[in-house]
């Protein structure tokens, strides 16, 4: 039961982190909001999968370049260079989490409103190609 609760809390923290990152970008790369978003996002991932698995995820040899760039971007946001930091974080995020995108697309296409949008002919041609590549990333 406690494991499920920590996953729920982790999901909420990740969602809040993404929200703060989005608002920080909208408000002209506000360093404070971006830093809060980074902290919430990383703590949410840790709550969802646990500290050991989070450490193993970022430590994997095939993801080391993405990890270094992602955390360098976080450091740059913390020291006050938000634009360069967010560019590096975006690049690192894509390198780290790209294997999860097909599973995310499949999950989103099963949700009520977003699934209807993703089933539109223009969007479904793109999402179907990405979803076919779905395999467990871990």
Automatic annotation (TrEMBL):
Compartments (UniProt record): Golgi apparatus membrane
Regions that span the bilayer: 12-29, 35-55, 67-88, 100-123
- GO CC annotations, alphabetized: cytosol; Golgi membrane
Instruction: Report which residue ranges the record marks as coiled coil.
Output: none
Question: InterPro entries per the record?
Answer: Got1, Vesicle_transpt_Got1/SFT2
* GO term, biological process aspect, one: endoplasmic reticulum to Golgi vesicle-mediated transport
Respond yes or no to whether keyword tRNA processing is given for this record: no
Pfam hit, one: Got1
- Membrane topology classification: Multi-pass membrane protein
Keywords per UniProt:
Golgi apparatus, Membrane, Transmembrane, Transmembrane helix
The source's domain of life comes to Eukaryota
Q: Which family does it belong to?
A: Belongs to the GOT1 family.
Q: What is this protein called?
A: Vesicle transport protein
Q: What is the lineage of its organism?
A: Eukaryota, Sar, Stramenopiles, Ochrophyta, Raphidophyceae
